[in-house]
Specification:
0% helix
Length: 113
């Protein structure tokens, strides 16, 4: 993505891959991602997960949910996040999470590259 340009993040085609077996908790979740641009050490991109449950260890990230719904639980007992379209969330680097997606979730993220 070049400066002074725009993309429609809601309709970008993403190549989905199965979640690695060691991260898949239930169902058959698949994820896809596309980096849009980078600036000043930050990466901006689109990420999507289909229904199912997976575990992850997070990067320091802020994101906006474009569509779908999910619950994110934290290994340290932090209250779970209930996510839906329009929500803005922040995840801390190293946070151990479990994502349960009930409707394919698409987000635009900002993180350190």
């Amino acid at each position: 993505m070049q400066p002074n340009s725009a993309v429609t993040a809601a309709t970008i085609d993403l190549d989905h891959e199965p979640v690695p077996a060691e991260q898949s908790v239930s169902g058959e979740p698949r994820t896809g991602a596309h980096a849009l641009t980078a600036f000043e050490g930050l990466e901006v991109g689109v990420w999507e997960m289909t229904p199912g449950t997976m575990s992850d260890v997070e990067a320091d990230e802020v994101f906006v949910v474009l569509s779908g719904s999910a619950t994110v639980e934290f290994g340290d007992g932090t209250p779970a996040l209930q996510l839906g379209a329009g929500d803005v969330a922040r995840l801390a680097a190293g946070a151990e999470t479990v994502w349960t997606v009930t409707e394919t979730l698409r987000k635009v993220y900002l993180t350190r590259g």
